[in-house]
Amino acid sequence: MSEPSTEEEFTARLRALSSRYWDSHPFHLRLHAGELSKDELRLWAANRWYYQRCIPRKDAAILANCPDQDVRRQWRERIVWHDGERAGEGGAENWLRMAEALGLTREEVLDERHVLPGTRFAVDAYVTFARTRPWVEAVASGLTEMFSRGLMTRRLADMRERYPWIAEEGFTYFTTRLKVIEGEGKSTLDLVVRNCRTREHQDAAVAALAFKCDVLRAILDAVDYYAVGGADRTTGRS
């Protein structure tokens, strides 16, 4: 069996997967260039909602599989961030406000009428991965946090400039998420490095992160394919 990588080498292997992140996906490039129609933005928001609503389920699966009390105490805060302490709060609620700012009704987002099969398949596979794989691998899959702050910062600036018709309250998800994402990414990386001490475990962590990158790109593949094929079919609005 191969010797484990050093912490520096292991970290470098994880960071090298940034090229597989979804920031360079054609749909994201069009979004940032201001080239999306209102219907395409609505389609994106409705499909991204399905991913947002499943994140707490993914995190709950990690908690269920993790025997370490300290890790569970740390990780449960993520569920609270997304679900909120009470109704009307949290990251999921803020994403619904984004969808409403784009012109979707809360009802049509919540009933998932616009969620595409490819999106549902990819996100469900991610939840299943977290439920069935060792907890450290599921945590490692979330290391896309290492890559997301730059994309989110750019998205907030570009959407404000390119889509000035979006009300400012629609950006609350991004403004609040930016306050925590960097710290979460650092703590998640430390957790993975600390708990992956064999080459086998390190390889599994790298594979888990690659899988998550594929999940994210698969979501945009579905949205992009449908949008290019006829965005007007999304909501029937201009």
UniProtKB/TrEMBL annotation:
Keywords, ordered alphabetically: Oxidoreductase, PQQ biosynthesis
Catalytic reactions on record: 6-(2-amino-2-carboxyethyl)-7,8-dioxo-1,2,3,4,7,8-hexahydroquinoline-2,4-dicarboxylate + 3 O2 = pyrroloquinoline quinone + 2 H2O2 + 2 H2O + H(+)
Enzyme class: oxidoreductase
The protein's Enzyme Commission number: 1.3.3.11
Biological process terms in GO annotation: pyrroloquinoline quinone biosynthetic process
Keyword Oxidoreductase: yes
Recorded GO MF terms: pyrroloquinoline-quinone synthase activity
Domain Thiaminase-2/PQQC: from-to ranges: 12-221
UniProt record similarity statement: Belongs to the PqqC family.
Functional description taken from the UniProt entry: Ring cyclization and eight-electron oxidation of 3a-(2-amino-2-carboxyethyl)-4,5-dioxo-4,5,6,7,8,9-hexahydroquinoline-7,9-dicarboxylic-acid to PQQ.
Name of the featured protein: Pyrroloquinoline-quinone synthase
Higher taxonomy: Bacteria, Bacillati, Actinomycetota, Actinomycetes, Pseudonocardiales
